Amino acid sequence: MDDIHICCPICRWEPDGQPYWQCTCGCEWDTFSTGGRCPQCGKVHEETQCIDYAGGCSQFSPHLDWYEGLEDIVKKLKEEIKERWSVKEYV
User: Fold this and answer.
1) Based on the structure, what is the number of domains in the chain?
2) Short-list 2, 23, 10, 15, CA closest to 51
3) Which residues contact residue 26 at a Cβ distance below 8 angstroms, ignoring those fewer than 6 apart?
4) Which of 21, 28, 78, 89 lies at a 20 to 30 A Cα distance from 36?
5) Average pLDDT in the 81-90 region?
6) Cα–Cα distance between 71 and 4 in angstroms, integer?
7) Is 37 inside a domain boundary?
8) Mean pLDDT across the stretch 57-77?
9) What global pTM score does this model have?
10) Which residue intervals of 1-91 are DSSP H helices?
């Protein structure tokens, strides 16, 4: 997972780990530390707002669009699965 880069898909602002996001329950946290799930109430936030006062653009984007490099990880996993299919294992 070292190949994943997190940034706003619109303006490229990079979050710095600070608790900029607030859930409807009042919890403030770094949404990327939990994959968009509030650690207090468990609500999943499918949209994430870029933080304008921290240097971002204030636009909303799908949370998963912030993660760059996921496609490469999925491709690698598919290749590994295909390789295992070609190995004959005897039980």
Assistant:
1) 1
2) 15
3) 40
4) 78
5) 76
6) 10
7) yes
8) 92
9) 0.77
10) 70-86
